[in-house]
Amino acid sequence: MANVNDSFFDGYYKDIWKSVIPAELTRKEIEFMIPYFKLDASSKVLDLMCGHGRHTLSLARKGISVTAVDNLASYIEEIREMAGKESLPVRPVCAPVLDYTDEGRYDLAICMGNSFNFFTPEEAAHLLKKIFAALKPGGHFLLNSWSLAETAYTKFTATSTGKMGEMEMHTQSSFHFDPARIETHSTIVTPEGHQEEKDAVDYIYTLSEMKAMFHLAGLELTESWSIPGRKPFSLGEPRAYLVAVRP
Questions:
Q1: How many CB atoms lie within 10 A of CB 195?
Q2: pTM for the whole structure
């Protein structure tokens, strides 16, 4: 689901994400990141499209400095409040990631939870150039996606109905080409009967296309995982973790 505007439904959307992305998954992702990228109190991490801060806060609680960027003010204010209460090394920034500029400071940039696939090919290329500029030489970029073509083509369904947290969600999806994308119309109903409709687009890239985009931005794709650090990515896996480096 793409980022949404602040609304009555904000609290419910957090329940959706907690249902889609359980805390245990975040814990395992953090347990991979820290030793793999050799993160410690001297490290600086850039968390792009950070959402409500599940990675930002988890890393900061380990003493790692994190800049958290998201376009939703409610997410950034929640992160700011939590970081203040716990005296965490977090710099929250409310800004669209395509406009955010920060050069040569970071050991690691992350874009998790399928956020990268919200962008058109042109926007994605622009974002990757910004990520390249933000990294120190030898710095890494970690991207998490569940909309690579190798997943999306095997898992696509046109309609679905289910429970997400306390809400009901009804979706209708269609696959389009040039550029490859899945367009989804969702109707969300709360237990109290409130209803909201959302449209979202996930742009679909093959792993080969991702590698080429990284290369054009100056980044080199080094590894792709379905379970980071444990299992290489293969056809039909539900999610991918791509690791790239700025040479």
A1: 12
A2: 0.89
